[in-house]
What we know:
This protein is of the alpha+beta class. Helices cover 33% and strands 28% of the residues. It has eleven helices and 15 strands. Strands 1, 2, 3, 4, 5, 6, 7, 8 and 9 form a nine-stranded mixed sheet that branches. β8 (190-196), α5 and β9 (231-236) form a beta-alpha-beta unit. It is globular, with a radius of gyration of 22 Å.
Amino acid sequence: MAITKINGSITTPQGFKAAGLHAGIKKEDKDLGLIYSIKPASAAAAYTLNAIQAAPLSVTKDSIEIEGKIQAVIANSGNANACTGKKGREDAYDMRKATADLLHIPEHHVAVASTGVIGQPLPLEHILTGIDKLEPEATEAAARQFSEAILTTDTFAKSTCYTAEIGGKTVTLAGTAKGSGMIKPNMATMLAFLTTDAEIEPDALKLVLKKAIDQTFNCITVDGDTSTNDMVLVMANGLAGNESLTPDHEDWHIFAELVRTACEDLAKLIARDGEGATKLIEVDVQGAQNDTEAIQIAKSVVGSSLVKTAVYGSDANWGRIIAAVGYSGAAVNPETIDTSIGEIQMLQDSQPVAFSEEEATAYLQNDTIHISIDLKIGSGKGKAWGCDLTYDYVRINASYRS
């Protein structure tokens, strides 16, 4: 499949611009960002499964539901505008209106996103003043400014970009995300924005996004907490000039892989940047009853606090891995399981295999740790990603509001 990773950003697809600045929500860092398409774009989004959802999510839902089109995203960090009642909802709509006025577009063509501390009133004056100062540009620098403006406890900005030939046209898809803590499978404390110049209708875009999320963002965990503000949003403005994509299009699978691959990149970057994390953990499950149960097991293992702390301590404690497999709720045969950490096999047919503790400890000191599990009861396969659990996670979250 002809998919190529390139150096690029959310402004690399044709017709997209971005901006980011410090509006005064946070003490110093950038905290307000904008993505803008020069023409209305088909849009699809997925939201947190938390029953308590922040005001910006309902505003974004309202915008997309009108005609499935979005032309701009306004996003802030430093304040989640969550659990802020009627005033919070009004503030989110005011953000939407101010952005629409700035860009001279309909209000329902603006999506709104916020991230940060829950339960504090939005400093709307600072935000509205900041919106007036935003000057979107189609540059890498502008894209970087947006990526920095959505960060909270993240230690680095996260982005990715791919291109592919679809229907004889070059299609580009890029993404940026934030996320570091309150990360759990089935969406996380994260915001992710994808831009593409592909031509595709909103319903088809929603279909491909949902499948990609199930395989990527829904397969990461840092600490098992699901936040109030999580959102993944994709905009497709059609400027690549390809024939409109549907599941029946001969290159549908290429576009689907573009979206999935970009989402996987961003998901892994979020897992790697877990609060206080020193290592990325990837769990690869084979031989499950089906793909759904393979992912279920992978999530169980990568979400285990005992597995995460063992990885932090470079302790090859495979008992914690097999325990997490057993309580995952998926079908297993207790007599047939193989388990490896890196290339070092620990279990074969559920029986311990002699291995060098020194080699295992040395491997576990790498910054990326692979755990492989083969159940040998079916053809299902799946992956999940997470990080180790360190002393710094407690330190960061013990003083988050200060």
